[in-house]
Amino acid sequence: MKRIFISILFITLLSALIPTQGQVVTDRKVRFGIILDGDTIPYYHLKEIRVIESASLLSETEIRKNQKLIRNVKKMLPYAKIGKQRLDLLEKEIADLPKKQRKAAIKAAEKSLLSDFSDELKDCTISQGKVLLKLIDRETGRTSYVLVDELRGKLRAGFYQAFARLFGYNLKAAYDPKNNKEDNLIERIVISVEHGRL
């Protein structure tokens, strides 16, 4: 009985492996296509890739030479990205609010931001703070001064700028990697970090 069962199983497998004449074998995957002038053209969704010049990445010599700046950028980059996400959410939230509710929402967001990150950012060095200001401008496309001006008003922005100048910061300093050597280096460090090189 066992022999007969094994023989039948063997013949069945063998017949399945040998295609008969005119038989069409398909892989049974769903394919998308576009019909254009009677022709079916396959349509594939590809992952987005970012093409960068190899000159954008840091060389080994530059990595050894700029260890402190690399460490500062790696430490501050997540805060800048979180800040950008929260700013986007806040701007969507307050877009249609009346002025009074808008101010309350901005104050609540500021309070939430301070409670979440003040302990971590309190221990930052002056050079890390300068890098953070540059990275915030990089992520948002606006200087810290402009952000404070838009959200809290000119008086508050002027006060923050005067206070920041006491510690060597400039909230009005724009991020310009094309014309500023240090900003260019920061940009190249960020690109290297985002591509897993650092």
List the topology elements.
Layout lengths: L1 H16 L14 E5 L2 E5 L16 H6 L1 H28 L4 H24 L3 H15 L3 H9 L1 H13 L14 H14 L4
Antiparallel strand pairs: 1-2
Structural features, described:
It is a single chain. With 198 residues, the protein is mainly α. It has a domain at 59-194. The chain has eight helices and two strands. The chain has helices at residues 2-17, 60-65, 67-94, 99-122, 126-140, 144-152, 154-166, 181-194, and strands at 32-36, 39-43. A hairpin with a 2-residue loop joins β1 (32-36) and β2. The radius of gyration is 29 Å and the shape is elongated.
N-to-C series of helices and strands? HEEHHHHHHH
First-last Cα distance: 66 Å
In percent, how much strand structure appears in the residues?
A: 5-15%
Secondary structure class reads mainly alpha
Radius of gyration: 29 Å
Helix fraction, binned, reads 55-70%
SS summary, helix count: 8
Name the poorly predicted regions. Answer: none
How many β-strands, per DSSP?
Answer: 2
Regarding quaternary structure, how should these chains be classified? single chain
State the major sheet: 2 strands, antiparallel
Rough outline: elongated
Overall residue-averaged pLDDT value: 80
In the sheet with the most strands, the strands line up as 1-2
In summary, what is this structure?
With 198 residues, the chain is mainly alpha-helical.
